[in-house]
Amino acid sequence: MDIAQLRDFIAVIDSGSFTRAASVLFVSQPAVSQRMKQLESELGVRLVQRGPRGVVPTPAGRTLYRDAQQLIRRFDQIAEDVAKEPRAIRGPVAVGLPTAAAVHLAPALFSWTKRHYPGVRLRLFESVSGYIQELLTVGRMDLAVLYRDDAAPRPAETPLYSEELYLVGRSDAEEPPRGGRAAGSAGTGAAAADTAAYGDISLADMLRVPLVAPGARSNLRVLIDRVFTEHGAAPVIAADVESLGTMVRIAESGEACALLPLSSVEALRSTPDLMVRRVVDPVIERHIAVCAGSDYYEPRDAVSVVRHGIVQVTTRLAEQGAWPGIRPAARTEPRAGRP
């Protein structure tokens, strides 16, 4: 087995067919098929199989795909590491960002990296949280910002921030609350004034409120379903919507409401009279961490500095009031990986 075979294998899995992989690799389709058979023969396991959606990896193939991604990225980095000037940090770093975080974090991280480490080339991926998790697991990402149910430390993770969820909508989309209370300190400036104007709302007051929410792959949907279930209820989901912007637009229309972090609402709202209520009894909170691609070894220098940059940028934006509704985690060093 060599690097060329691994590149061919990755191309097949990414393309989903031998024909498309052959086009990417500039070889014939029979040549690609033969190379896959040779690789399977050398490893003694079946790596791919044909399914309804084309060529897909077997369990052994998924393991090889994940490890091959990491190995090839490291292999491609060797030449740059050898040639780079002393003490300079260079190389590509792939970072996965869920949309709610990307709105604020991506532009600021790009500027920070360009200013402090011009030799580092960012590769930013934005998608729903579940897909970002999958990309990290299979080795496509060096770093990913991911949601967690609690703030407990985990290997290869650095706590980033916590945030609460708010009910967003118009008065004609929800049942009148049974006595709202003045909102707590949920943010600064206009955001805090908006939430205070409409008061808090309890989970009991939302049982008949129609909601739009992401599908089952999203951490936000998992969190919403879990909190309602823990209180013996089920959310009234009017539609599965995978776009934050679309959820805010529907909330603004008055047809349904959404449960969103304040930062997403403030970044995407287009009308100042949108009702934003802090959810209480219980408070719905989620925790966010920046996660490295592996907990078995320390990441290379370029990955480490970008991870540091993500923490620095998040803290600065929160302190400046430019990322409303988030509470930065206490500064801690990432836990060392297993030897």
UniProtKB/TrEMBL annotation:
Sorted UniProt keywords: Activator, DNA-binding, Transcription, Transcription regulation
GO biological process: regulation of DNA-templated transcription initiation
HTH lysR-type domain sequence ranges: 1-58
Pfam assignment, any one: LysR_substrate
Entry protein name: Transcriptional regulator, LysR family
Organism: Nocardiopsis dassonvillei (strain ATCC 23218 / DSM 43111 / CIP 107115 / JCM 7437 / KCTC 9190 / NBRC 14626 / NCTC 10488 / NRRL B-5397 / IMRU 509)
Signal peptide: none
Family statement drawn from the similarity comment of this UniProt entry: Belongs to the LysR transcriptional regulatory family.
Molecular function (Gene Ontology), one example: DNA binding
Coiled coil: none
InterPro entries associated with the record: LysR_HTH_N, LysR_subst-bd, WH-like_DNA-bd_sf, WH_DNA-bd_sf
Protein origin, superkingdom: Bacteria
Species classification: Bacteria, Bacillati, Actinomycetota, Actinomycetes, Streptosporangiales
